[in-house]
Design brief:
With 617 residues, the chain is α+β, with helices and mostly antiparallel strands. Helices cover 25% and strands 26% of the residues.
Length: 617
């Protein structure tokens, strides 16, 4: 018995149906784990490979070649034990190698080159397939893919293994060396036997740990390659071999992770642990012999008219393939492709397969039909990419489309993108949208200006106020004086800009100092008439705003009138840039200062400077 081979309990026959009673394995396939967690860490790759190699070692000792080693045929229990299953196309090996006849069976993504050619097969074919499985654990990808089984088989024969380091830079050199040796094109260059490979795996096992990356890919199904396919492969292979031969490069390495496994799924060494003793390769060989005997009995006693058992076919996902490519693939699998209709699609281009009636978990047999629906084309409207375009050019591009869509501009600060240039768009460029979709264009308003918060200055001495403003990143405008009944001379009694207001760095801030109590005015004598106060006059102030970035359509304008006695807010509201200049009536009696600020929708302040007005003129 071997704990890494699924146990077979019984065989039997019910009518024309032959069946095998096998051990129930509570777990998932290695393919499922690769889909979810690959690339694996180095020690996980080695741990799983050692368990598979142990199973193959037991089978090879009993002269059985599996011929279909792939992740779908490796079951992993909840305790992390890997078990090899599906000896359905296994062959009994002799002391010499053997050749396949009629058709070649196996999973084309994991074929050895000799298996793909329909040539001699021995235990080294299983070694090659195990190397491909290790490659997939290390990268999350199958090394060779194509539109048909023949094209994939030819890549196994003629193309070098893709560089693992380019996909996973963390893989161990030791792991890559083992994969490279196991997947040599010439079987004579591979490991002599699985024991030799197993020893290398055990020697390479050491402490590795890095984060994992999830990837997805399609299954590789066990299929038949007909004599005609084999002849085509041989023909193409000879064409490749007639060219100048180049030594295949040794692969660099990768490291990956089995990241979602719980800690109790691993033993103390970090690799999958052991649990139950499971299967005997000897018993498996006896079962295969028994099945062959049953079929031989039927043929011998029932004659040639006995019905042929249906052959299950594992059908891959045909979506987004052309009908011609899918037709070639299904023909190689022995099933018929039937186009049942066409439908519109938001994602699949015209002429490509949109869906099929046989799912991943459904069973189909040779000679049966698989129905597919072909895309009539993508519905909706394609939005061009206008990122990095000037906003005016971007609007012009969208207007020329004559699509029933709208566009909205939204300003956004950017440290890299120049002013008025589109930073990005939603939905993204080259996507398809339904009628009436609004495209939001995020337009750069330039670099965000650094600001400072105005501190509260009242009550401070002039020196302290100046130091406080400088520490806040602001500068000091000239200070004015005003009498105060309560504040000591030289202390700040007012400031031009309110505390907690944000201003651009370096903006000057004006404040008012106390000049002491106001002088008492003597009462006029009866003979001396009182002085007539100055008349209040009004003037029209024309305000032009500057330093406003392009693309800002309106701002909030703050106008402060400053006199020796007080400063008043005389205007504070939103103003459209298109309505400028702003005409504002201002009233006063003498020489006064008018300070103008502008704020955009993000609260950014732009100081406009001071205007001096003499109302006495």
């Amino acid at each position: 018995l071997n704990q890494h081979i699924v146990n077979v309990y019984d065989v039997g026959q019910e009518g024309n149906i032959h069946y095998i009673v096998m051990e129930y394995v509570d777990g998932v396939t290695l393919k499922d784990l690769i889909r979810k967690r690959a690339p694996f860490e180095n020690d996980e790759i080695l741990g799983v490979a050692i368990q598979i190699a142990t199973a193959l070692e037991h089978a090879h000792k009993n002269d059985i070649i599996h011929r279909d080693i792939k992740p779908q045929n490796i079951l992993v229990t909840k305790n992390g034990i890997s078990k090899v299953t599906d000896f359905g196309i296994a062959r009994a090996a002799t002391s010499t190698t053997m050749t396949t006849t009629n058709t070649t069976m196996g999973s084309v993504h994991y074929f050895s080159p000799e298996q793909a050619r329909g040539g001699y097969i021995d235990i080294k074919s299983d070694i090659y397939s195990l190397g491909i499985v290790m490659y997939e654990m290390a990268t999350g990808k199958m090394p060779f893919d194509g539109e048909s089984a023949i094209s994939i088989a030819l890549k196994h024969i003629s193309e070098p293994l893709p560089d693992i380091k380019e996909i996973n830079s963390k893989i161990s050199d030791k792991v890559i060396n083992i994969i490279t040796k196991a997947t040599e094109k010439l079987s004579t260059n591979r490991y002599e036997n699985i024991i030799e490979m197993s020893n290398d795996l055990k020697r390479a096992l050491t402490n590795y740990s890095e984060e994992s990356v999830s990837r997805t890919f399609e299954d590789s199904q066990t299929i038949k390659i007909t004599d005609e396919d084999i002849e085509e492969i041989k023909k193409e292979s000879r064409a490749h071999s007639s060219e100048t031969r180049v030594l295949l490069p040794r692969q660099n390495r990768i490291e990956e992770d089995f990241d979602d496994l719980d800690d109790d799924d691993l033993d103390d060494s970090g690799i999958f642990g052991n649990k139950k003793v499971v299967i005997s390769a000897i018993l498996t060989s006896l079962v295969i012999i028994a099945i062959i005997s049953v079929f031989g009995y039927n043929i011998f006693f029932k004659g040639t008219k006995a019905e042929k058992n249906p052959v299950e076919v594992y059908l891959p996902n045909l979506s987004q393939m052309t009908v011609e490519s899918a037709q070639a693939l299904t023909e190689s699998l022995g099933v018929n492709l039937v186009v049942s209709g066409e439908e519109e699609s938001d994602t699949v281009e015209k002429g490509l397969i949109l869906s099929q009636n046989i799912g991943d978990d459904d069973i189909i047999y040779e000679g049966e039909n698989v129905e597919v629906v072909v895309s009539k084309g993508i519905s909706g409207y394609k939005v061009p990419s206008v990122a990095n375009e000037n906003i005016d050019d971007a609007i012009e591009i969208l207007n020329k489309l004559n699509y029933p869509i709208t566009a909205t501009e939204k300003l956004e600060w950017s440290e890299e993108v120049p002013v008025n240039v589109v930073i990005r768009q939603e939905p993204e460029g080259d996507s398809f949208v339904p009628e009436g979709t609004n495209i939001t264009l995020y337009v750069s308003s330039g670099k965000r200006q650094k600001t400072a918060v105005v501190p509260k200055l009242t009550g401070m001495t002039e020196a302290v106020a100046i130091k406080t403003l400088q520490d806040a990143g602001l500068s000091v405008d000239h200070a004015t004086s005003a009498p105060s009944k309560t504040a000591p001379i030289g202390t700040v009694i007012d400031q031009l800009v309110n505390a907690n207001t944000e201003l651009p760095l370096g903006t000057p801030v004006k404040f008012v100092l106390s000049s002491g109590p106001p002088a008492e005015t003597p009462k006029p004598s009866a003979e001396v008439p009182t002085e007539t106060p100055p008349a209040v006059k009004s003037k029209m102030l024309s305000i032009e705003l500057t330093n406003i970035p392009e693309g800002v359509s309106e701002v909030k304008v703050l106008v402060i009138q400053n006199t020796a006695e007080k400063n008043d807010e005389i205007f504070y509201q939103m103003v459209k840039i298109a309505d400028l200049p702003l005409k504002l009536e201002v009233k006063g009696t003498g020489k006064e200062e008018i300070l103008v600020f502008a704020y955009d929708e993000n609260g950014q302040s732009y100081i406009q400077g001071i205007q001096n007005i003499d109302f006495s003129e």
